[in-house]
Amino acid sequence: MYALTGIVFLGCNVLIVNDDTYSGVIRNGNDCPSPNNFSDWKGNCTPQQEIQRLCIISAGENTTTSEKCHPEFPNCTFEVRKDNNSYFITLSKDAVNTQELHLWFPLRKNMTCIPSQFYQNTTDYLTTPVKPETICGMKSTYDAAACRNKTPDTFILEITAEGPISCLTCNNPVKKPDMNISLPSGQMESSNGVISADLASEAMKNLSSLIELMGNASTAAISMGKVKGLLSKLHKDDPKDINFGFSPNKDMSIVEDKNALNKYFNRSVRVSKEAYDMALNKSGTFVGVLVFPSMSQDEKKSIVLNGEVVGIEIGAHIANLTDTIDIEYRNVDKVGFNVFCNSWNGKGKLPNWTTDGCQTLESNNSITCQCTHLSFFAILMSPPPKNISASDVASLTYISYIGCGLSMFFLGTALFMQFVISKTKSSQATKILVNLFLAMLFLNLTFLTNETIAAMGSYVACVIIGAVMHYSMLSTFTWFLIEAVHLFLQLKKRTANIKHYMLKVYVVGWVLPALVVIVLLGLQKYTLMSIQTDDGKSVKMCWITDIYIHYGVNIGYYALVFVWTLTNFIIVVRQILILRKTNVGKCKNDPASKNTLTILGLLFLLGLTWGFAFFSYGPMVIPSYYIFSILNSFQGFFLFLYYYNTNKIVGDDRNSVFTNQSTSTFSNIYDDSPVHKK
User: Fold this and answer.
1) Residues 327 and 371: beta-carbon distance below 8 Å
2) How big, in percent rounded to 5, are the helix, strand and coil portions of the chain?
3) How far, in Å, CA of 537 to CA of 390, rounded?
4) Measured between alpha carbons, how far is residue 412 from residues 7, 409, 606, 632 in Å?
5) What is the spatial distance between Cα 439 and Cα 639, in angstroms, rounded to a whole number?
6) In degrees to the nearest 10, what's the CA dihedral of 484, 489, 491, 493?
7) What pTM does this model have?
8) What's the confidence (pLDDT) of residue 26?
9) How far apart are CA 620 and CA 628, in angstroms?
10) pLDDT tens digits for 399-439?
11) Contact 308/378 with Cβ under 8 angstroms?
């Protein structure tokens, strides 16, 4: 290292002069009488400190200059070609890896004393040096035309005055297999061309026996009739992600560059470094990928994308990966279908597909399956319900957004009145009602924001909003149930005998739904789903795609809530009608409008309107959705009226149990606990 007038020289410094009249290479040599002097372009010796790592090159227009600047530093070899206003500098991989080569471009032409002016001036002539190691590397792209007649260990720097510096690599990222292994398909393929699922499973298990046939080769293409694949040995000293690219003719290659993978291949499999390391720790020696076209269908006759099943084997049991195995299909025509990534463990005569352990990500015309284990994988396609049209989806979405907005307004108003304006101590019934308001408020809010977050394309954000929305919905159902149970206990006058009654209510209302959601998060059940319409478009949201979880957790749970709340609804309505007849016999006025409002309030209070959303079937699906969406728009309004009415009655007439009006009757049946001033 030498320091001259503020300039610090390290490694090999190459000064590239933009002067067509100058040619050749000047470096310290034997022409000067003193070892401390340097020769400029006229042959004059300029006294300078001895610097042995300096090379000065002038590249003429459309000419190539190649010199080895210093014999004692062979890694500083390079080649410079100037084309118009661009420099193309060819470097070896060693020259980049040593991190000793720095390229300087003077700002002035016709430097009369080289290298004296270079040494003695820090700003007038020089720019910031170009350091190839900061530009060239793993992210460099491959260009076959630029790399013609160049070795794979070569980089090409392109430096222009107008744009950023770019670096190309001549190492082709698409690695063809080292050898081919052809095997008979045997009985795996039937006469009609269908591949037996159980024999395909056996073929995957027998891949380890092919390692001996590979000899010193690292990769081998596998062919068994229509089945194509690739086998790659694992190397303990170089664990990394492995990308398998499938060409349209089903040939496979290992691809080391993401851009090349997307450019030349329409399907790919990525085996993560985590899976690589896990396999090595379990004595795995290979990773194999086979593509099975026309595999036998499952019992449901599921439609498989492209009719292809992908089998992945790594010689060890791999599961619970955090860095997933990714199977990607690009340029997919999925118009009119819902798509779901599925896996099969290879057991049984026929595939038993499941979505467990796999996430489905859709982006434009591509589908990516992110799976936490190794087995057989396929993308199943199912047509959307035929009776859902684009106009229905648009109308229902519009009504739902308006309804959620109105409900949120009235629910927020009721909560404001409760926490800010109310001057009385809340009764048990009021506390339960307020918690129902909070659950419904969160449910409406997450529903309104769900589609926007789904459109962001963030998997983590989608999981979070899907889980929060599901938690809010389960909490809402639970508070419907608590409302019904509390109403029943009030009718029987038993709440006063229950120790820590409200504490138990809070645990049931908020903690139990959270436990369900935590379990589903652990099972990775929340993901992006698409609702397809008849015009080929789709509406995306973050929710549960597993139909069995939806039926078991959502519809099953609400069915239990519905039975209990409906029973209590019938009991209370019957009580109201009996009291109305009693009042008529006593010649007391009992307006029918108040009876109607009471029944409507109770209908919304117990969440019975949700039955239209969950229990619709066949031709009544769309009409039921409209009925539910419209009723849901008024839910917040009627609950607000009920809250205002019951709080007013309880506060003014809290000592009565039954009054002459049915509205007051229901209010006092529901809430006869004493109210005290704060």
Assistant:
1) yes
2) 40, 25, 35
3) 8
4) 68, 5, 19, 16
5) 13
6) -160
7) 0.53
8) 43
9) 12
10) 888 888 888 998 888 888 888 876 667 788 888 989 999 99
11) yes
Which region, left, alpha or beta, applies to residue 137 given φ > 0 means left and ψ of -120 to 50 means alpha? left
The tokens of 560 are what? 């239990």
Peptide bond preceding 674 in cis form (omega within 30 of 0): no
What is the per-residue pLDDT across 546-576, written as a single tens digit (0 to 9) for each?
777 888 888 889 889 988 888 888 887 787 7
Report the half-sphere exposure of 466 (CA within 13 A, side-chain side): 23
pLDDT recorded at residue 369 = 94
Spatial separation of the C-alpha atoms in residues 349 and 298, rounded to whole Å: 9
Other CB atoms within 10 A of residue 126 CB: 17
- Residues 45 and 32: beta-carbon distance below 8 Å: yes
- What was the pLDDT predicted at 424? 67
- Per-residue model confidence (pLDDT) at position 303: 86
Q: What does the pLDDT read at residue 75?
A: 57
Given the structure tokens 């460099």, which residue do they identify?
Answer: 140
Tell how far CA 32 is from the center of its chain.
67
Per-residue tokens: 413: 């108003």
Cβ neighbours of residue 505 under 8 Å, at least 6 residues apart?
Answer: 431, 432, 482, 486
For 254, phi then psi, to 5°, come to -90, 130
| Secondary structure element (H or E) that encloses residue 360, with its range | strand 358-363
Note the residue count of the chain. 678
Contacts 24+ apart (CB under 8 A), 297-302: 297/350, 297/351, 298/350, 298/351, 298/352, 298/353, 299/350, 302/353, 302/380, 302/382
Q: What is the pLDDT of residue 337?
A: 76
According to DSSP, residue 553 is labeled I
Ranges in the chain, pLDDT < 50: 1-10, 20-52, 73, 110-113, 116-117, 119-123, 387, 649-678
The C-alpha atoms of residue 275 and residue 297 are separated, in whole angstroms, by: 29
Beta pairing partners, 25: 57
Query: Is residue 307 within 8 Å of 275, Cβ to Cβ?
Result: no
Residue closest to 628 by CA, chosen among 476, 390, 385, 404: 404
The residue among 220, 377, 249 whose CA lies nearest residue 310 is 377
| Phi, psi of 630, deg, nearest 5 | -70, -45
Residue 327 pairs in a beta bridge with: 269, 369
Residue whose structure tokens are 């490694």: 11
Q: Quote the CA–CA distance of 20 and 521 in Å, as a whole number.
A: 68
Token pair belonging to 244: 């398998």
- Distance separating alpha carbons of residues 678 and 663, to the nearest angstrom: 26
**Phi, psi (rounded to 5 degrees) for 553:** -85, -50
Of 330, 329, 323, 333, nearest in space to 370 by CA: 323
Give the number of other CB atoms < 10 A from CB of residue 413. Answer: 16
User: Cα separation of 389 and 533, whole Å?
Assistant: 5
CB 246 within 8 A of CB 268: yes
User: Nearest Cα to 355, choosing from 530, 525, 550, 543?
Assistant: 525
Which residue reads 């990534």 in tokens? 341
pLDDT one-digit tens code per residue, 317-371: 898 999 999 999 998 877 767 888 999 999 988 999 988 889 888 887 899 999 9
Residues 6+ apart with CB under 8 A from 107: 124, 125, 126, 127
- At which residue do the structure tokens 């398909």 appear? 185
Identity at 587, one-letter amino acid code: C
Report angle CA 583, 588, 589 to the nearest 5 degrees: 105
The string of DSSP codes covering 562-630 is: HHHHHHHHHHHHHHHHHHHHHHHHTT----HHHHHHHHHHHHHHTTGGGHHHHS--GGGHHHHHHHHHH
- Cα angle vertex 518, ends 517, 520, to 5°? 65
